[in-house]
Write a structure and sequence with these properties.
By secondary structure, the chain is of the alpha+beta class. It has two domains: about 70 residues, no CATH class; about 35 residues, no CATH class. The chain contains three helices and four strands. It is elongated. The termini are far apart. It binds zinc ion (ZN). Zinc ion binds next to loops.
Length: about 140
């Protein structure tokens, strides 16, 4: 920790000395330019660290949202077999699903029953006047 901080200080001083030395060749005084370059490096580095941390936080938030979306799409609200408390639990078709009730702590196993049904076309008009007219014609 201390060695990395010392390394950062040495690098900052070297860069500042190099730039201030170069500027002193053009007639700019060394120490004011040395301090200004040092301060600009510190401000620039802090700004860089801030941008990196904000970017990482945004990425983490995106990952959390995606994980929550995936979790919710593969989950179901299942009542406990003992106390009927509803529990949100992940469902996977490839393995036995179980959960511990959040209210009574009883272990539950989930049995999945899959059915199929024919897709039907919904009735287009449910207008009551049309229905009465159709019934009057009959
Ligand atoms: Zn329960």
């Amino acid at each position: 920790m201390i060695s990395s901080a010392l390394k950062s200080v040495v690098i900052t001083v070297c860069i500042s000395a190099g730039i201030a030395g170069s500027l002193s060749l053009t007639g700019v005084s060394f120490w004011p330019s040395f301090f200004i370059v040092s301060i600009l490096q510190i401000i620039g580095w802090q700004g860089f660290l801030y941008m990196v941390s904000v970017n990482a936080a945004l990425k983490n938030k995106e990952i959390d949202e995606q994980m929550m979306k995936d979790y919710m799409s593969n989950s179901a609200i299942v009542p406990c077999s003992n106390c009927k408390q509803e529990n949100l639990t992940p469902i996977q078709l490839s393995e036995t699903n179980s959960f511990k009730c959040t209210k009574c702590n009883v272990d539950n196993v989930i049995y999945i029953h899959i059915e199929s049904a024919q897709v039907t076309t919904p009735i287009k008009s449910l207008n009551i006047e049309d229905t009465i007219k159709i019934n009057e014609l009959k």
